[in-house]
Design goal:
The complex is a heterodimer of chains A (535) and B (494).
Chain A lengths: L2 H16 L6 H25 L6 E10 L5 E8 L1 H20 L7 H20 L3 H10 L1 H11 L4 H30 L6 H7 L5 H18 L8 H8 L2 H26 L17 H21 L4 H22 L2 H33 L4 H4 L4 H4 L1 H15 L5 H16 L1 H26 L4 H6 L23 H5 L6 H19 L2 H12 L4 H6 L4
Helix pairs in contact in A: 1-2, 1-4, 2-3, 2-4, 3-4, 3-11, 3-14, 3-22, 3-23, 4-5, 4-6, 4-11, 5-7, 6-7, 7-9, 7-10, 8-11, 9-11, 10-11, 10-13, 11-13, 11-14, 12-13, 12-19, 13-14, 13-18, 13-19, 14-17, 14-18, 14-22, 14-23, 17-19, 17-22, 18-19, 18-22
Chain B lengths: L2 H7 L1 H19 L6 H25 L4 E2 L6 E2 L1 H21 L8 H19 L4 H19 L6 H32 L4 H10 L5 H17 L8 H8 L2 H8 L1 H17 L16 H20 L5 H22 L2 H32 L10 H4 L1 H15 L5 H16 L4 H27 L13 H19 L2 H14 L3
Helix pairs in contact in B: 2-3, 2-5, 3-4, 3-5, 4-5, 4-11, 4-12, 4-15, 4-21, 5-6, 5-12, 6-7, 7-8, 7-9, 7-10, 9-13, 10-11, 10-14, 11-15, 12-15, 13-14, 13-19, 14-15, 14-18, 14-19, 15-17, 15-18, 15-20, 15-21, 17-19, 17-20, 18-20
The chains are: A mainly alpha (535), B mainly alpha (494).
Chain lengths: 535, 494
């Protein structure tokens, strides 16, 4: 049943490609929304039915024979981690469609590429065969390129090409590692379980070389510092729905690949080296350090941005650093915190990009914080302001939202493994408060007090969103502020959906942890527990 | 020498040549007064019929024979490759139906079929002289085919470059063959192999022979540094000729190179391991491979002309395919055949799209692609499929071809790891120029003319059909692979 998430998305995408150009955009929107709702419903029902968190096979059939006994299987399976991430994808898919409701130029193609992307993301999370996972992982690159290059904004062709090439280089590194693992281990198939079992035959020396290559290949997409530079450019250039997908789900593909492929297939790659270099004892130390640097670097750079969307882009890099740090802690708390952060950040990044891109930029046509300030957006777009405040508060890690639980667990896990890095991560959280607060204040709450008085209360004019904002000094944007269209119903629904999910996860994290933690304890990760320096 | 056996082995080629002569006669006697389009349609259709009959004849041949000295072979592997060449020729002839660039129609079709016959003979022999003869038949036909557009100066210039280059490479090849004959006192590949194995030490003349043979075949497959004819020939030749140069001749030449190195020069293989290299033909081909990947990928980065971009990408792909030749096992042969055939079909489709765009815009520069997704969704979609297949994006045929080639190469020769890593790295470079083509077709907004692109309907059907085949072979590669693996095992190639 879960496999139908992939097929429905692909079939709807094909249908949308074949629609004649003259059809009304409404048809495309409804088809896309229907597809997203159906796949999310399937994901939700599977999530509710499989509460043990253990892995179960969805489909497994022979696909491509590679020799007398060897072959590639078309195999899909799901465990707790996959189910949680598939559910995340479903929710973000719905939100993305709702936030793109107003796209009028080449609507069919937009939603077709969008659904192609969603279907491939489902495929990566559900794939049980390394080759199949790689196929879906690579298919993701092409719709991303077109979504950004055609419907994007600032420097879209450059951003799209940079993103595509970075992703492709990462995939190439993964492909090299996978081919080497398959050829060297003598495995009979390319299924993840078989390769993991056969990896016990791989020499530690081989794993010490293959692990960093495959891990870095996936981590490039996850925004590991210093390979993160595609992320801010790409996010800013992308249209809203694409940024939501990119930051919310596609970056999680990289982290998922790190966990599911790199760490499971080459567990001895995490073991200490023979010698110490620069105070680091293993690849694990190095990647943990890079993740911590990414957290701090992303936060510090976000602090000085003038463009609203760049703040959110760099905050994505910073939050992805949390995930990678959690992965490197190698204890149950840290790992489950990392998976929880994948989901939490997925929801929150989607929400933040939606507010900045769709609610604010599409109306004000500017993302400069200095220009947004005088527009008094908390009066003219109150729904956007409230949503952003909630999203900012959640992103800071205030209890009651998903970010708190996830970051707390990662910090606890990191304290056990890398106390020094845990302290610096705490500092990163503090800086996170500062940059998001700064952006929030500058964008929404910087209207000068004079505007309050200038609003004439005599006629009982309600302070509605189309409110007046007069300013002494003839601000050129005064006229814009008059004409800000109200937040539409699809946008409100999507924002409420995302906020609700974040609150639910924040208050009842057991809903997710009950499936994630058994999955991490399951035999699938045995090799990691036995072979690597598990704590 | 049993002449009955000889005729039996040559029935397909005879049928094809007979078809060619019939077409020439038909065009000469009955079609002179008709319009060029009618003549092209009639002659191409007859040629397609002839090729189909030849395929049927080959499939129904249960004969497996080898003439003495390996003069001519007829076994399932040879039949499989010949069928592939004929299939590609049928695609090229379908492309030629809509051509209008010359009124020497009969001659044009005759030359296409002669080139095909040359290719079929090239894959069916283990004798040096027959290899050379068929290579010359193939090459001379292609030189004239490249020059056929008499209205264009650049076509004549390109064909002259092609001819002079080719003539010189053929001279090198013949020189190498003569040295091999001198070493072995026979022109049969098996005898040469035994002679080299029996020789006490590595003969320096053998080294010269290997290098000159590499030069000769390197020219045919457009490997750097012997690729300089390719961009001009691809750019200026008429579309069906360029398609045939890029597809059919590549299949035949790669297979022939594989046979020569595997069977004839096997004892002199050498090794290309990074720190333990040994002299032989593998290091030579490795150098050609690296040079091709470098020259092809870097050369394509700044191209503004779609045809020249395809030419440089052909050079790069020749570099990847040479890795399979260096691995010289049965698995790598099936990987090579899968790669070169899917590449050939994709290239014919690409030239079909190029010919449509040139008819409409009279130029093949990338800006002429602007708005293609709006003006002709079929052509734009097919273009996307072919380009992404060349880039190696799953689930298209090009991805599986690369994957299988790298796996086969690594499983048989782990010392080629550095070459495979280099190939993967260069594939990343290639994504840029392939995406630039798609950017022009899909992203760049058209100017005000959103008039639909009027292209011959048959060419559009051809492009769409080849795109569907590319997707099909990518999702279910065993459809093609199993055929080759079975053919290889039943022909007993080691």
């Amino acid at each position: 049943m879960l496999a139908w998430t992939i097929y429905i998305s692909y079939l709807t995408a094909a249908l949308l490609f074949l629609l004649p150009r003259r059809t009304r955009p409404d048809l495309a929107r409804i088809l896309a929304l229907g597809s997203a709702l159906t796949t999310c419903a399937i994901a939700l029902s599977a999530f509710c039915n499989h509460r043990t968190g253990l892995s179960f096979t969805i489909i497994d059939c022979n696909w491509i024979p590679l020799g007398p006994q060897a072959g590639i299987h078309y195999a899909l399976s799901a465990d707790g981690i996959s189910l949680a991430l598939v559910l995340l994808t479903g929710i973000i898919a719905i939100a993305g469609v709702l936030f793109s409701w107003d796209i009028a130029d080449r609507t069919n193609e937009f939603f077709a590429f969008y659904l192609l992307l969603i279907g491939s993301v489902y495929g990566v999370f559900l794939a049980a065969d390394a080759f199949l996972l790689f196929v879906f992982y690579e298919i993701v690159i092409i719709p991303k390129y077109f979504l950004i290059a055609i419907w994007g904004s600032t420097r879209r062709e450059y951003g799209a090409m940079k993103l595509a090439i970075y992703s492709f280089v990462g995939s190439a590194m993964v492909l090299g590692g996978l081919i080497a693992a398959y050829a060297a281990s003598g495995a009979h198939s390319t299924s993840l379980a078989d390769l993991a079992a056969a990896s016990t035959h791989l020499s530690p020396h081989f794993q010490l070389i293959a692990f960093p290559i495959v891990f870095t290949g996936f981590a490039i997409l996850a925004g590991l510092w210093p390979f993160h530079t595609w992320a801010p450019t790409g996010h800013v250039a992308a249209p809203t729905a694409a940024s939501m997908l990119l930051a919310g789900v596609v970056m999680k593909l990289g982290a998922y690949g790190c966990l599911r492929v790199a760490m499971t297939l080459f567990p001895l790659g995490l073991a200490p080296w023979a010698t110490t270099h620069l105070g680091l004892h293993s690849w694990r130390d190095l990647f943990a350090l890079l993740a911590a640097i990414g957290i701090l670097y992303g936060a510090l750079v976000a602090l000085v941005q003038r463009d609203f969307k760049f703040v959110i882009g760099y905050s994505s890099v910073s939050h992805m650093g949390f995930i990678l740090l959690g992965l490197m802690t190698l204890n149950l708390t840290g790992l489950s915190g990392a998976v929880l952060q994948m989901i939490s950040h997925g929801l929150l990044a989607g929400l933040l990009f939606a507010v900045v891109g769709r609610m604010v930029y599409a109306r004000t046509h500017t993302r400069e914080l200095a220009e947004l300030g005088p527009m008094n957006l908390n009066r003219t777009l109150p729904f956007a302001a409230v949503t952003f405040v909630i999203a900012a508060v959640a992103s800071m890690g205030i209890p009651g939202f998903s970010g708190f639980v996830a970051e707390l667990m990662i910090l606890l896990g990191a304290w056990r493994a890398y106390p020094l890095l845990a302290c610096s991560t705490g500092l990163g959280i503090l800086i996170g408060v500062i940059y998001i607060w700064r952006a929030m204040q500058k964008a929404f709450f910087s209207g000068s007090p004079a505007t309050e008085d200038a609003i004439t209360p005599e006629a009982g004019v309600p302070h509605s969103y189309a409110g007046v904002s007069t300013r002494t000094g003839g601000d050129a944007h005064t006229s814009h502020a008059h004409n800000l269209t109200p937040i539409t119903l699809p946008e409100k629904l999507a924002a409420i959906l995302l906020i609700a999910c974040s609150v639910i996860v924040g208050i009842f994290p057991r809903l997710l942890l009950d499936v994630i933690q058994p999955a991490l304890n399951s035999p699938a990760f045995d090799a990691l527990r036995r072979g690597g320096p598990w704590q | 020498m049993n002449y009955a056996d000889l005729f039996l082995a040559l029935r397909p080629e005879t049928l094809l040549e007979f078809t060619a002569l019939v077409i020439l006669a038909l065009d000469l006697f009955f079609l002179r007064r008709r319009a060029v389009r009618t003549r092209f349609a009639a002659c191409s259709s007859l040629a397609i019929l002839g090729c189909t009959l030849t395929i049927a004849l080959i499939i129904n041949t249960k004969v497996v024979l080898t003439l003495p000295g390996g003069l001519l072979l007829s076994n399932p592997l040879v039949h499989a490759v010949q069928n592939a060449i004929l299939a590609v020729t049928i695609a090229v002839l379908l492309l030629a139906i809509s051509s209008r660039f010359t009124h020497h129609v009969g001659e044009y079709i005759l030359l296409i079929l002669s080139a095909t016959v040359g290719g079929m003979l090239l894959v069916a022999t283990h004798d040096l002289l027959v290899i050379f003869l068929s290579l010359e038949l193939l090459s001379l036909s292609l030189y004239i085919l490249a020059a056929f557009d008499k209205r264009s100066n650049r076509a004549s210039e390109a064909a002259l470059k092609y001819f002079l280059f080719g003539g010189m490479s053929a001279a090198f090849l013949l020189f190498g063959f003569s040295l091999l004959y001198g070493l072995a006192n026979s022109t049969s590949l098996e005898a040469i192999s035994s002679a080299i194995a029996a020789a006490p030490a590595f003969n320096p003349l053998l080294a010269v022979a290997i290098v000159t043979i590499a030069i000769g075949f390197g020219f045919k497959i457009a490997a750097a540094p012997l690729h300089f004819w390719a961009p001009d020939a691809y750019q200026a030749a008429p579309a069906p000729s360029a398609a045939l140069i890029a597809s059919g001749s590549k299949i035949a030449s790669f297979f022939a190179l594989f046979q020569i190195t595997l069977i004839g020069l096997d004892p002199a293989a050498g090794s290309a391991a990074l720190r333990h290299s040994a002299p032989g033909w593998i290091p030579v081909l490795t150098i050609l491979s690296v040079a091709s990947m470098l020259a092809g990928n870097l050369g394509a980065l700044r191209q503004l002309s779609l045809r020249r971009l395809v030419a440089y990408s052909a050079v790069a792909h020749a570099g990847y395919m040479l890795i399979a030749v260096c691995a010289h096992t049965a698995d790598s042969l099936s990987a090579l055949l899968y790669y070169v055939i899917t590449y050939a079909l994709g290239t014919v489709g690409l030239f079909a799209i190029i010919s449509c765009i040139e008819e409409d815009a009279s130029s093949d520069l990338l800006p002429a692609l602007a708005g293609l997704s709006r003006r002709s969704p079929v052509l734009a979609g097919s273009l996307a499929i072919f380009i992404l297949s060349l880039a190696g994006i799953p689930p298209l045929a090009g991805f599986f071809a690369k994957f299988y080639l790298f796996v086969a190469a690594l499983q048989s020769s782990p010392q080629l790891l550095w070459l495979v890593v280099l190939a993967i790295a260069f594939s990343c470079v290639s994504l840029y120029y392939y995406l630039v083509v798609l950017k022009h077709a899909f992203v760049v907004p058209a100017d005000d003319n959103t008039t639909p692109l009027r292209a011959p309907i048959l060419t559009q059907i051809l492009a769409a059909a080849l795109a569907l085949i590319t997707i099909l072979l990518g999702c279910f590669p065993h459809l093609l692979l199993n055929w080759f693996v079975a053919a290889i095992t039943s022909s007993g190639t080691n």
